[in-house]
Design goal:
The complex is a heterodimer of chains A (85) and B (534). Chain A has 85 residues and is α+β, with helices and mostly antiparallel strands. Chain A has three helices and four strands. In chain B, β15, α19 and β16 form a beta-alpha-beta unit. In chain B, 45% of the residues are buried. Classes of the chains: A alpha+beta (85), B alpha/beta (534).
């Protein structure tokens, strides 16, 4: 399992458009991805649950990737976050 | 070519494509007999809705760019979200719901989830959850509900509710055709205020959607797929109308004065700051009726003092020192709001509406009065109370206004000194108009309600059309009595109802001594022409 945190820079937080794109990306990965904030986390393919986390600018979002390609998938996800959030 | 005959609501001619609009509030059946069938209906509809969203996405991408298109991608993702799907399926399997009901309930559930979040942006997503569910429900019921129109259209609907009507992008409307309606329905009022042709009592088959049509609001006729000769004729009429428009436009800056030198105040009725440009373009000398309820109807919750203040200030400033009469909330009866949580009433027209709501829920009234008082520092603002039937109501409303004034002064906030008036729209108000005149600066006669209450005939009921006769001597005597009582006490009287624009009565109104008329902006110039001819 690969774990990492990312501090959200986007001023509206994980809003509709990046959340949509992120879920799309996660669905394309072979790893099982979780997204979390504070004590709460959810499956990274679940748009509504991710939105419900209410991850805002400055929040530390927590990610885990688990699977055969977890290292590469985590890198792809990090790359996405850097570019979009 | 096929001709449909209906009844005319408003004149003039429109040429364009038909867009059939179905509202979603159509009753949804709650329980289903066969859950397996409902599940497969849901799955098919969901796939179709996703396809529609894809199309919208592609279209928006081409027209408006990737940011704007993103919303449709987001909507699609919501429909494909596991939790969304599970929720719909559970409602179908566990509760025995129909697919429509299950989708509606799921939409509500997710809308509520977003609505409870502490972030304003996320709360606004509540609408997305509802929108996308509404779309799915309309796919399930085989109706196209979204008003995604990209070119001006003739809008056809079974019926337009005030809520539905205000969502429309007015620049995309050429005219209205409805099945249910009457001369006093909301469609009618909207059509007249936009000066668009409108016809009712026409039931169009779904197959007409997107077809070329001519709507003739004078004859009350709709022609689908017109032949070229008919089309040419219609276009010639459009041309003539344009010439007429220019002729009227020349009157814009001339005074509304009769042949014997009497000056009449010609004011406009508006629903918000977006109408101000229209008032000025048509030479309006003021706003005689600012219908503030649209601020409430455009909202999911009570508009805040700041929101209201911003709207009132924008109008006050936009009118550049010309008088702006702001009518306090006139909700209830045919205009209902979910968030107000009003009890169901057997007889809403005689129920808790307008000033009655304001006096029973002073916190709502206070917010509005404070906003109006604050806006009065930025222009020539007057305040007007609707649905008055008793003297104590006026006194209580005025006391409330005074209390708000003191509050604001205490807070060191700038306020003006608005004049106070009442709507005369109940027979009771007419009969005690001598007493009311002692309390206020001006009267404005609301002829729509005054007619319905005087004649005890529901103006929304299409079967009563011939009984809701605004020319009935009883109505005209009410107006005359109001005028006499007002002028004996130095109070001015205007007419702000639909009757104010009825040019067959203009001469009679002026003879009675009416000081002003307040009408929809497109009626200002024809009315000025009429006044100047008298």
């Amino acid at each position: 399992m690969v774990e990492f945190t990312y501090v959200i820079k986007d001023e509206v937080g994980i809003h509709a458009r990046p959340a949509t794109l992120m879920v799309k990306l996660i669905k394309s990965l072979s790893s099982t991805v979780s997204v979390g904030k504070g004590g709460k986390s959810c499956n990274g393919t679940k748009l509504m649950q991710i939105m419900a986390l209410g991850i805002k600018q400055g929040d530390e979002a927590h990610f885990t990737c688990e699977g055969e390609n977890e290292a590469a998938d985590a890198a792809a996800l990090k790359d996405f976050l850097e570019k979009n959030l | 070519m096929k001709v449909y005959s209906g009844k005319s609501i408003n004149g003039s001619v429109a040429v364009g494509k038909i867009f059939i609009y179905s509202k979603n509030s159509a009753a949804v059946k709650e329980k289903a007999d066969d859950s397996a069938l409902e599940l497969s209906r849901y799955e098919n509809a969901s796939a179709a809705a996703c396809e529609q969203l894809d199309e919208l996405y592609q279209k928006a991408l081409a027209d408006a760019g990737v940011e704007a298109a993103g919303i449709f991608e987001f909507h699609r993702m919501m429909l494909e979200d596991d939790d969304y799907i599970d929720s719909v399926k559970e409602f179908i399997s566990d509760n025995g719901y129909t697919a429509e009901m299950a989708v509606k309930s799921t939409g509500k559930k997710f809308a509520a989830m977003f609505a409870e979040m502490d972030d304003e942006y996320m709360r606004a997503r509540s609408t997305d959850a509802k929108d996308v569910s509404d779309m799915l429900v309309s796919v399930l019921s085989g109706k196209s509900s979204r008003l995604n129109i990209n070119e001006p259209v003739i809008l056809a609907a079974e019926e337009l509710t005030p809520g539905g009507a205000i969502q429309l992008d007015k620049s995309k409307l050429l005219g209205f055709v409805t099945d249910i309606g009457s001369d006093n329905s909301h469609t009618a009022i909207l059509a007249r205020s936009l000066d668009l042709p409108a016809v009712y009592d026409v039931k169009l088959p779904e197959s007409c959607n997107g077809k070329m049509a001519i709507l003739d609001g004078c004859k009350g006729e709709l022609i689908i797929d017109p032949d070229s000769e008919t089309l040419e004729k219609a276009k010639a009429i459009l041309q003539k109308n344009e010439e007429r428009r220019l002729q009227l436009h020349a009157l814009k800056d001339l005074p509304a004065v009769t042949g014997d030198g009497r000056r009449i105040k010609l004011y406009a009725n508006i629903a918000g700051p977006e109408d101000v440009a229209d008032v000025l373009a048509n030479g309006g000398e003021g706003v005689g009726l600012f219908r503030t309820e649209f601020l409430y109807m455009n909202n999911d919750d009570y508009p805040t003092e700041e929101e209201q203040f911003a709207a009132y200030k924008a109008v006050a400033e936009g009118m550049k020192g010309k008088e702006v009469i702001i009518r306090t909330l006139d909700i209830g009866a045919d205009k209902q709001l979910d968030y107000m949580k009003m009890d169901n009433e057997v007889n809403p027209a005689l129920g808790c509406r307008a000033i009655r709501i304001c006096l029973t829920r002073p916190e709502i009234f206070r917010t509005q009065l404070r906003a109006i008082l604050r806006a009065s520092a930025y222009g020539n603002v007057s305040v007007m109370f609707p649905m008055i039937a008793s003297l104590w109501e006026v006194r209580e409303a005025k006391a409330m206004l005074e209390k708000c004034r003191q509050e604001l002064l205490g807070e060191g906030i700038d306020i003006g000194c608005p004049r106070v008036g009442v709507m005369i729209e109940t027979p009771a108000a007419v009969i005690i108009s001598d007493m009311l005149a002692e309390e206020v600066d001006f009267f404005s006669i609301g002829t729509n309600d005054l007619t319905q209450y005087t004649l005890a005939a529901d103006r929304q009921n299409p079967n009563l059309e011939k009984f809701v006769d605004t020319h009935n001597p009883a109505v005209l005597r009410m107006i005359r009595m109001t005028e006499e009582n007002a002028h004996a006490r130095g109070v001015s009287v205007a007419i702000c109802g639909e009757l104010g624009a009825d040019m067959t009565l203009t001469e009679e109104f002026l003879a009675m001594g009416i000081d002003g008329l307040s009408v929809a902006p497109p009626k200002l110039l024809p009315l000025k022409e009429k006044v100047r001819s008298l």
